[in-house]
C-alpha cells in the first residue's frame, strides 16, 4: 500500500515587504525544516502546494508533491484530481509582513481567463483567487470599502482628498449618500466614481496633495488611527503614492491570533503588517493600483471591483467547532477550508478522514502525528495528508498548534 502522509519541504519567497531574517515567521519555520536563511534578507511567504512558481517537494528528496499525486491520484481523490487538472485546488501560505502590500484585488474566473489570454506575461494563469487570512500574530489590513457615510465624512474632513477627486465628484457622492432613498446601484456608481477619480489622478497632483496632507498632519501632531496610518504608509512608500489615500476609502481591520478575514474575487485589500496563515485558490494573479513600485493596472482594477461596502467587522469570518480542540474556517467557495487546532500539553485529537487532500503546518509547540505511521511534529513542519486518511495528533510538553488546509470533492 502506498503512503498517504508525506513530510514536505517548502519554498520561501523574498518579496521586499517581508520581515527580515528570523524575525519573520516564514524564515523561522523554514529554518526549523532545515533551510538556511540570511538575517539581512526579507522572507515574505512560505508556499505549500503544487503551484509551479514554488512547488513543494518531499523532504530530503527532489520529488515534487505534484508528481506524487500524479502517480497516485487517489491521494487527491479522483474527483478533485480531474476537476483541478492534476493540481491541488488550493495554495497554502505563511505570510510575514514588515510593510504594506499593494492595494490589490484578484480576478474572478471569467476575468482571470481573459487577462491570462490577453496579457500572459503579467497575469500568469487563468484562475480566480479568493483567499482567506488567519492571524498568527497581531495583524493589520485594509479590506473592502468603508461604509459610505465614513467616506463622505473623509471627503469633508480631508480637503486634500477632495482636491484629488474634484469638487463635482465629491459633491455628487456626498449628496447621494445623504439621500436615504438612493438606489443601491446609484450608491455603487458614485463609489466607483470616487475611486476611479482618485486612482486616475495625475501624479504631480497626487504628490502635491499628499505632501500637503502629510505636512498638515505633522503640524497638527495628529495621533488618531487614520492619521498615523497615512503618515506610516507615506514613509513606507515615499514619493507620492496614490495608494496612501486608500486609507480614507478602505476599512482598517485589526486581528488577533485566530481571527480571520475572507477576501472574495474582485474585492480591494492590502495587508499592512503581521504574520498570518493564508489559503487561496491555486493562482498567483494580482491586479495592483497603489502602494507598490510594480506594474499598476488601474483601468482593470477600477472596472473589476464589486463596490460592495460595509463595516470593518463585516469583513471578518467566524469559525465553528470542528473537534474537541479545533475550529473550522469555511469560506463560501469550494477550493479550500482551514482547520486550526490548539492542544495543551499531552492532549490529543482525532480528526475524521477527509474526502480530499490536505496540508498541515505546525505553527507552535511540538508533538506527534499518528496515521499509517507516527511522524514528529515541530514548529515549521509541513505534511501532506492524502484523501480519506484518519489522523490523530498528540501534543508534547509545550502544547501544539497547527493549521490544516483541505479541499473536498464537489457535492
TrEMBL record:
Zn(2+) binds at residues 104, 106, 131, 269. Residues 164-250 form the Phosphomannose isomerase type I helical insertion domain. Pathway: Nucleotide-sugar biosynthesis; GDP-alpha-D-mannose biosynthesis; alpha-D-mannose 1-phosphate from D-fructose 6-phosphate: step 1/2. The keyword Metal-binding applies. It catalyses: D-mannose 6-phosphate = D-fructose 6-phosphate. Residues 5-148 form the Phosphomannose isomerase type I catalytic domain. It comes from the Eukaryota. Keywords: Isomerase, Metal-binding, Zinc. Coiled coil: none annotated. GO terms for cellular component: cytosol. Binds 1 zinc ion per subunit. Its EC number is 5.3.1.8. GO terms for biological process: carbohydrate metabolic process; GDP-mannose biosynthetic process. The active site is at 288. It is an enzyme of class 5 (isomerase). Its cofactor is Zn(2+). Residues 326-370 form the Phosphomannose isomerase type I C-terminal domain. GO terms for molecular function: mannose-6-phosphate isomerase activity; zinc ion binding. SUPFAM superfamilies: RmlC-like cupins (SSF51182). Belongs to the mannose-6-phosphate isomerase type 1 family. Involved in the synthesis of the GDP-mannose and dolichol-phosphate-mannose required for a number of critical mannosyl transfer reactions. This is Mannose-6-phosphate isomerase. It comes from Apophysomyces ossiformis. The gene is PMI1.
